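We modelled each protein-ligand pair independently. The example shown here corresponds to the flavin-adenine dinucleotide entry; the chain sequence is given first, followed by the ligand as SMILES.
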Amino acid sequence: MESPGRASASTAGDLTQQLIDTSYWSDEMLAAAGIPVYDVPLVSVGGGMGSFAVVDLLRLSGVPTSSLRILSGIDVPYETYSYLARNSQIPDHERLRSDSASVMDNIWGWPSYALREAFGARTPAEFAAPLFQVATEPVLTDYYTPRAVQVYRSVDREMARIGYHFMVAKGQARMVRRRYGGGYFSILTPPTGTSPTRRVAFRSLHVHVAVGYPGLKFLPDLQAYLQKHNDYRHVVNAYSPHDHVYEELTRRGGTVLVRGAGIVASRVLQRLMEDVERHGARTQILHLFRTYQSGTQGPNRFMQRKAADGVAYQGFNWPKAAWGGQLRDRLEAGSDEERAKLLKIMGGTTTPKRKLWQQEIATARQKGYYRQFVGQVEDMAPGADGSVVTRVKASDGSLLEVPARFVIDCTGLEADLTEHRLLNDLLTHGGAGYNVLKRLDVSPDFELRGTRSEPGRMYASGSITLGAYYAGVDSFLGLQYAALRIVDDLAGAGFCPKIGVGRSLSQWWRWARNRPVS
Ligand SMILES: Cc1cc2nc3c(=O)[nH]c(=O)nc-3n(C[C@H](O)[C@H](O)[C@H](O)COP(=O)(O)OP(=O)(O)OC[C@H]3O[C@@H](n4cnc5c(N)ncnc54)[C@H](O)[C@@H]3O)c2cc1C
């Protein structure tokens, strides 16, 4: 193998039909296609929060930057996250959903975000507030959650410490194929004008895949409307840019239909209601529920959550014990069938019970500009004056026509894995398979089952692995947990030293003093 950064001779430098059709590639096949090959022991595909968690831990274990490459189209690990967050109405100063200890930049979880916020305070009241909240949550106060910007700045600091930018190879990863003789080839399409060839290949012993959501999907009736009428102005997905909706409603007033009952719907409602209260918007908000939640949910009194006003309440997207307590153990020990059942009980659409949101909804109801209704959408069609008419079948069978200037879809459906080119390729050529929720089947150590290329191993983390042995895969803490399991497994395979007590302490001390990882 060559040293990282040195390219083999290249001619055309693109994928050939032979390469596309062959599941295992040899070094000679790549040479014949003229694709330059770079050697690096481990490649992480994606470059988002999941990649960051894995490379951070590998660096703390003592793996040098020269042994790691992150194949990614983004500059900073939170770029995609912050894009989705801002669109779904989490501006940088707003608070997120995860807890105080889910510190992305610090595997020890200490100091927590609440502590850091307190120490950054300018007044005694600002100092006391986060500490009081975290000490009394969720009984006297709502759960403490960090502001988005706090997470971004802490990741910036850690990126500098671990030499993150030295490890990034910019571009779109096209596929990962197994290599004759062991390990993998990851094909990258670099940005136009940055490489003499159309593709480059990274030959690595191990690969980690963390590509985030395979894609976002509209509900079928919304999709049908959009395809037929090409109207992306009045019908929007909450994760896509849609500021024009708030701007136009504030300027001209009008009716907006909000669909969905999770945290994204809560944030969109917050924005709409604050525009009314603070900026005088004349907005009428209609909130449509397919299933109206109320009372108490759960199979027994040990696994219950409350529901009211149509929404189910839960602090985080899974019960806390799913991250590190008995629910995690049950999930790991159970059969496929038991896991599917447990995931169904623990999961579902929920939103945190926050005092602010409850007050805002109560006020909006009282003033008459927020109304809820329940039903199954039959179809949607363009109405008069650019409005969109949603036809809803109520539970008594009656049909309701609901005109609105805008429809905001907050259902947050994720596309199938096959819609992501690289994942589809892994399922077709890479040996990867599905788990009980039709995501990628990984072992408890997050190794992608069926993809091993001895002595090389391929791992995956993030939402694409939901349905395997861990529930909170799509969360900061879950990404860090996956990273711990992956790096432990790699240490077992001899790739890196296991972090012992001494190294852990010395690395924490370096972190505390903001010294580069050594
Ligand atoms: C709006 C929102 C709010 C959230 N809030 C929280 C929260 O408060 N707390 C919490 O714990 N979790 C939260 N999450 C969940 C989770 O922590 C984030 O989604 C996190 O960003 C997931 O990290 P990831 O690496 O899996 O995906 P991402 O951060 O999205 O990174 C994946 C990256 O891979 C790139 N990629 C995809 N395909 C390729 C390819 N072929 N080649 C190269 N690159 C590719 C993508 O473009 C993307 O940049 C939230 C999620 C969303 C959407």
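The radius of gyration is 24 Å.
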